[in-house]
Each structure stands twice: as C-alpha cells, then as structure tokens.
Amino acid sequence: MIYKKKIIELLAEHIPNAEPTLHFKNPFELLIAVILSAQCTDKQVNKTTEALFEKYKTPQDFAALSQEELAEKIKGCGLYRNKSLHIIKTCKIISERYGGRVPNDFLALQALPGVGRKTANVVLNLAFGKPTLPVDTHVYRVARRLGLSAGNTPRMVEKDLIDLIDVTERGVWHHRLIHFGRSVCTARNPKCAECVVQQYCQRLKKNAQTQIRRHD
DNA sequence: AACTCGGGGCA
DNA sequence: TGCCCAGAGTT
C-alpha cells in the first residue's frame, strides 16, 4: 500500500518532533501518571503528580494510603474514586508480588487494576524501551480516518500500525499521531483545510455522500 | 454493547 | 452552561 507510506512520510515531515508530555523519573512514576491520565490532560496529571511524588515515592508508600486519602490528592484528574482504588490495589500487587518493581511484561502489566492495553503499552514503551505502539482514542481516530487501518477495534488498529511503522519509531509515532489528532484531526470540527494529508482522508470522501460522524 | 466515573477543557 | 473527553472496569 503505497499511499500509506506517503501518509507516513507527510506526517513525519509535518510533525518532526513529537515528545511525551507526561513527567516521570522512573517506571513507577510513569505507571501512576498514565493511570491518572485517563480522561484527563497530561498537564493536569503533571500538576498532580508533582506534589504527590514529593511525599509518596514507592509502591509501598501508596499501598499504605487509604482510598479516601489518595482520592483527595488526585481529585484534579477526575474519576478519582476509581483511580485511587485501582492505584492502591496495583501498588499492593507490585510490592507483594513483584518485589516493589513495575513488571516489564505486557500480560503482567495489563492484569494490574486500572491498567488496560493502552496504559500497559505506554509503560512498556516509555519506561522499558519496548517497541509497542499504544493506541488511544486519538491514534485510533486518526488511523481510521486516514485509512491506515480498517480494523474496528483498538487492538486491530494497533496491529496494523505496528506492521506499518518501524520498530525504532513507534513511540515517536504514538505521540505524533496524538499531536495530530489533538491539533488538526480533532474528533469534532477537524481542521481539514490545514491538513497535510487531506487528500488521503476516508472521512472527507465519505462526507461527500453521508452525514458526518464524529469518530469515523 | 452500553454504562459509569468526574473535573477540566472548550464552544 | 452544556457537552465531551490524553480509558478501564463491570454488567
């Protein structure tokens, strides 16, 4: 598929540097930050974790907190009741079963409370340098609009993107597609006029005949 | 497949 | 002000 290569080329040229926006000093901090980042901005997460990691540094520190205590400290990130419970459970598992170290294995990570496919892949990539390609809602939306994947699940899109993107560049592409999805290829009212790959967009073609659908 | 969680971001 | 999320879990 030559057009896919062309899309990759154009996006790479248009968005040369795409770096992670979450702040972290070690795999554990990253894991907590990514759990907190669900349905929340990285800016808000950074603000929250900066204060949080000042006082609580290890899985053992978090495992000792009550849900109410932690919930109060992570309120700014939303979904605090779920997240605080997940984080405490996860920290207990990490300290009891993994000797206080974040596992670097996908299945072990995904089995942790509050950790799904996307979170596990972000941790593997950013903390352990593994060639995963995390698919969040932005990556999913962009990949489908551009016809980079015909899959209708994040997992299928992930597989197609992994086949398409070089091992050493998957982390970069995760952030590049997120950046593109937030700034240009937005869920609502995308800025198609300033899109460098609009000629390849399946959504624009479809919209000529059908009604606009947000995520397609 | 649909629903819940929730403060922040944005029209 | 109201609507929608830089997901994951439960039913």
Brief summary of the model shown:
The protein is built from twelve helices and no strands. The protein has helices at 2-14, 27-36, 42-55, 59-63, 67-73, 80-97, 106-110, 117-128, 137-145, 154-164, 170-183, 202-207. It is an enzyme of class 4 (lyase).
Descriptive report:
It is built from twelve helices and no strands. The protein has helices at residues 2-14, 27-36, 42-55, 59-63, 67-73, 80-97, 106-110, 117-128, 137-145, 154-164, 170-183, 202-207. It has 216 residues and is mostly helical. It has two domains: 2-17 and 134-207, Endonuclease Iii, domain 2 (Orthogonal Bundle), CATH 1.10.1670; 27-128, Hypothetical protein, domain 2 (Endonuclease III, domain 1), CATH 1.10.340. The protein is elongated, with a radius of gyration of 19 Å. The mean pLDDT is 92. Helix 2 (27-36) packs across helix 3 and helix 2 (27-36) runs antiparallel to helix 8 (117-128). Helices cover 57% and strands 0% of the residues. The structure holds a DNA duplex (11 and 11 nucleotides).
What helical percentage do the residues reach? 55-70%
For CATH, the homologous superfamily of the largest domain is named as Hypothetical protein, domain 2
The main β sheet shows up as: none
End-to-end separation in angstroms reads 21 Å
Catalytic activity: 2'-deoxyribonucleotide-(2'-deoxyribose 5'-phosphate)-2'-deoxyribonucleotide-DNA = a 3'-end 2'-deoxyribonucleotide-(2,3-dehydro-2,3-deoxyribose 5'-phosphate)-DNA + a 5'-end 5'-phospho-2'-deoxyribonucleoside-DNA + H(+)
Pfam families: EndIII_4Fe-2S, HHH, HhH-GPD
EC number: 4.2.99.18
Domain HhH-GPD: 36-183
